[in-house]
Amino acid sequence: MDAPYAATPDVHVLPSHLPLPGIGVVPINAYVLHAEEPVVVDTGVGLDGETFIDALSSVLDPATIRWVWLTHDDADHTGAIERLFELAPDARLVCHGLAALRMSSWWGVPMDRVHAIRVGDRLAVGDRTLLAVAPPLYDNPMSTGFIDEATGVLFSVDSFGAIIPEPTTDAAEVPAEALAGGMASWAALDSPWTELVDRDRFGRVLDRVRQLQPTSILSSHLPAARGTSLESFLGVLASVPDVEHAPAPSAEEFQQMLAAMAPAPG
Ligand SMILES: [Fe+2]
Ligand SMILES: [Fe+2]
Asked: Which domains does the chain have, with CATH numbers?
């Protein structure tokens, strides 16, 4: 778990990251949206445990959480979800309805607290509304992001993630070439189906993101991207169907990765 930071005036990032030896790191973010009815977006990785709760508690009293928007039920997003629902008695779970059903295979999901959401729905959270949107790329069919209609901040799920050289709190600090390469690599890895897409139809999917005119892009797997990075990011995604999709590591390559991750002796 890394130190929380402010992404925009009313959003905190709760960041963690996964090291990829010899390659870089994948950021893993949850978010706190300080709306009149506070919203937590995703719940970190399980291994962070109480550290995640401590980080969350440093920016918001968990008892005041009203909504937990779960972008999808992958393990890098559901880490503290059970604990959070104990600590936040008034919180409701906002997610794809079938994600709630699937999670009930490993967690006694409080179904009476689930608010099923689908693309195009709006959720009122007191001082603003959140419009549910489909992320252009995804690794899980339940993926549902949103745009805060008061501020234009887009929560883009796994889309626009990137493998970057080292953790940072601002996507603009990553050298442009490294960011573009790391974003294309992540996209091909996380959404391998992109090599199958019809380019024109995929272009229309990217156009729908363009029409949202987001003011900032908050991906689950990228440092906060504030301001005008949208066109360069869309350009990277448009290139993804044509990038070479890397094969899985061989048994030998995986052993080499593990060796690189081992702490140095002494
Ligand atoms: Fe995912
Ligand atoms: Fe993810």
From this structure: 5-246 (3.60.15.10)
